[in-house]
Amino acid sequence: MKKSDALPLLLVIVAGAALFAWRLTxxxxxxxxxxxxxxxxxxxxxxxxxxxxQMDWMGGVSSKPPLHTWLxxxxxxPFDRINVFSLYLPSALAVIVTAVLxxxxxxxxxxxxxxxxxxxxxxxSPLTVRQIALAxxxxxxxxxxxxxxxxxxxxxxxxxxWTAFWLLSALATLTxxxxxxxxxxxxxxxxxxxxxxxxxxxxxxxxxxGLALFLLLTLGWFSLACAQMGPAVADRLFRAELIGHxxxxxxxxxxxxxxxxxxxxxxxxxxPWSLATLAGLWSVFSRAAADPPAxxxxxxxxxxxxxxxxxxxxxxxxxxxxxxxxxxxxxxxxGRSANRWLGRVRPAAQPLVILAVAAAMAAxxxxxxxxxxxxxxxxxxxxxxxxxxxxxxxxxxxxPLLHVDTPFTLQFHLxxxxxxxxxxxxxxxxxxxxxxxxxxxxxxxxxxxxPRGTRWYELVRWPTEGExxxxxxxxxxxxxxxxxx
Length: 485
Description:
Blueprint: H1 3-24, H2 36-48, H3 67-76, H4 84-110, H5 112-123, H6 126-131, H7 138-158, H8 163-176, H9 179-186, H10 190-194, H11 208-229, H12 232-247, H13 261-269, H14 273-286, H15 292-314, H16 327-343, H17 350-374, H18 376-395, E1 401-403, H19 408-414, H20 423-430, E2 437-440, H21 444-447, E3 457-462, E4 470-474
Parallel strand pairs: 1-2
Antiparallel strand pairs: 2-4, 3-4
Helix pairs in contact: 1-4, 1-5, 2-3, 3-4, 4-5, 4-7, 4-16, 5-16, 7-8, 7-9, 8-9, 8-11, 9-15, 14-16, 15-16, 18-19
């Protein structure tokens, strides 16, 4: 690697690591953005040995394939217990890898400045700032789709085997499903656009070995999961997730009813860089690159982005995070536009422009962090960490605790994974002779089943004043003696 290439690479990696470290200093928000399910899957693998297919704390089969779960679980193994660092590490590494891919590809075809700016724009976009410390699969999915897409372009532009494309597409499928293969291949629509003179055709080289590998990995895991969990796996992954989300939205919406939302999500969640992306799209149509590889890559990137946006517009199930696998394409186009704009600024003023943009983004990120700290869901997430800390302080690890209707965040901080216990069953256990400890948000779910005159004790409640969100009750007047270390 040239010395001139090492400095931008180091800058991108350090920027990504610093962003992750900064996000980790904030309060936990595990109850937000549906992060509890992925966290439960990780602990189900670690504590219950369900490595092939996992279940959540409500007894449901995993809604997604397990690659993210496996990575987070492996990141947890060096520690005594799970923590937010190991849970978020796969997303953080995926974001940094994606930024590096943007840097390398952008530098190769659009110039070193365009690649660096595109990578930094990706890192400093509101969506990425959120995803770098989020227990969701979107960042990992985006990294694998980006790698597969760039592998597909390499085969089109310079020939070679398709094994890398199929392998990365298989890993993307093991992260979120077959949509990754579709988006990764979307850029190849540029083959027809580039004209008959393009060489070589993307079908050059055998597709069969890579395709066989794709089928072996994806169908192999699916067969093992069905053997372990039965027909519930196919029902959840295909009927509820794949077909369900493709035909009906969360609130009963139909396809195309809200086709405009992905565009609005992109303009807002990638702001201000989305404006540079629009300028980059315009420049591709109005002033195509003269260099054939650069022209192929810019058209490939446009097809990757636009086709992906159309796919998301057609679907009734829409979230801003779904745009993650096309944001790298948007960042590549934005970086190229920004590099051209900076070229028109006098060299002495360029550092000032960059510092001004960085200061504006830092202010926006700081505001996001401040608002996040005050959100109710964040306060409750911190409250569950507080309750878990109080339990561990009084009774150590391993308290035989029944969870009736509590959020999984409490179990996460206790390093356990149990399915919820029905209130009637918890009440029967409380009337027995053995010590029983029950956690519940609504005590009526338990007390309504208790015989009149049954005595119980409240050991912990949060918050301690006002209406409690969670209670810990028992049929004994105190905690068991804490085990000696």
